[in-house]
Amino acid sequence: MKILQISNRVPxxxxxxxxxxxxxxxxxxxxxxHAVTLYCLDGLKHNTPIQEAQQELSKYAATLIHPIDTDIxxxxxxxxxxxxxxxxxxxxxxxxxxxxxxxxLQTDTFDVIQLEGTFVGPYLPVVQAYHKGILALxxxxxxxxxxxxxxxxxxxxxxxxxxxxxxxxxxxxxGNLIKKVDVIxxxxxxxxxxxxxxxxxxNYITIPAGIDLNEWTYSPMSSHNEWYHIGSMEWHGNVxxxxxxxxxxxxxxxxxxxxxxxxxxxxxINASEYEAFPNVKINPDVPKAYDFVAECDVxxxxxxxGSGIRLKILEAMAAGKLVISTTIGAQGIxxxxxxxxxxxxxxxxxxxxxxxxxxxxxDVERITANARKLIENSYSTEALASKQLAYYINx
Length: 395
Prior knowledge:
Layout (H helix, E strand, L loop, with lengths): L1 E6 L9 H15 L3 E9 L6 H8 L4 E7 L5 H10 L3 H4 L4 H13 L4 E5 L7 H7 L3 E6 L3 H11 L3 H21 L5 E4 L2 H10 L5 E3 L19 E5 L5 H21 L4 E5 L14 E4 L5 H6 L3 E4 L9 H8 L3 E4 L1 H4 L11 E2 L3 H12 L5 H15 L2 H14 L1
Helix pairs in contact: 1-16, 7-8, 10-14
């Protein structure tokens, strides 16, 4: 098959879940013998190494990368607020990129065009005008749900009202978007359920983010003291999670346990923001996520907002690390608490788990082995890509 992926971000370097998810599928489609084309926007704020990205991605796909300024302009934000249009989405529209897509579609044909998420929605009209094959929308998150949760957690009344308005605009936009495609591919059944409430007649398939088992080899933890969090700090959900964890959980663990340490890594992490916290090691430059994870013991995922599936959890489980996550952080994963990972929603839950680890009251070896088996059986990229493309062919 000939497949065109349209993305609002460049899936390189592999330093956050969304880019890893897109990259893994582009590579796997190609390795399965399909012809892949990748057109993607590159937000200037990301400082993407364009030449390196082009070289890497071109191994698997004919690639076009177009720069775009997605920084928030407050006058535009106000204008969109007053007109009740989603500024979250319109920031990703670029007239030149639209023309580049039009030229491509006028000169080439594809069996499948896959839109990678909500924020390439502005390019749907030009795709519909020229494309006659399957039109798929891969929803990496339920974006409106993320903003609803941010609004719920916000204490400032004015900001809460603004976040609620943004969430409502996104809900309307996503509800209309999913009605205009042939198939909606979600990363969790829970996400599919939320979209079905907006469009019950749609064709839905759940395709989780996939894991490259050759890269994420099993390296079980050696102790319980080196905890870590890795995730892009350009995403508000991770910033909120780390701040909450440091103030409400980390402080308790430092007071009670002498050997405990927290390792933080992720795209755009600012070491100066966390230098005042004891027992915190900042890793601003992590060329390869696996190498960082392999040196740690416990993966902490204290998310309080979010949607989709957390690829970092799947990677940690594949690597043999114990995962301790909030319920929101682990949503979308087919886990059993105490069998594949551990759930902690309150600060006291995290502390209680650490105490059990210190006292040898948890069978960590069994939990991490179960987790690895779950990844092998349900979350390998090749198996998931085969399922996805078979569904498209049947349509």
